[in-house]
Amino acid sequence: MGDRSKYRYIAPVALPTPGALGKTGAWRVLKPVIDYDRCTKCLFCWLYCPEGSITVEEERPVIDYEYCKGCGVCVNECPVKAIRMVREE
Ligand code: SF4
Ligand code: SF4
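^ inputs. structure came back:
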């Protein structure tokens, strides 16, 4: 077997790209914020984000606010309620 470590995290959907109206993060009214003190690094949020807007850095989820649409799916899927939605400024 070759080294498969670089394939450890493979996005479940296509990587986000700008749409006809620009980067989709501009559509957002509420944004998800991760409480890393609560996060167990289960990566359910990364798996379920329909936009592919969550990446994994140093084994923890990081939200890409340029593309996150604020749908709240990650909030619903987090088993320990480590993500909450806050209103955009
Ligand atoms: S709010 Fe929606 S688009 Fe944004 S990170 Fe969560 S699941 Fe992805
Ligand atoms: S679903 Fe919640 S606990 Fe799991 S990685 Fe995401 S923020 Fe952390």
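The helical segments are 44-48, 73-77. The longest strand covers residues 30-34.
thumbs up if we can close this ticket
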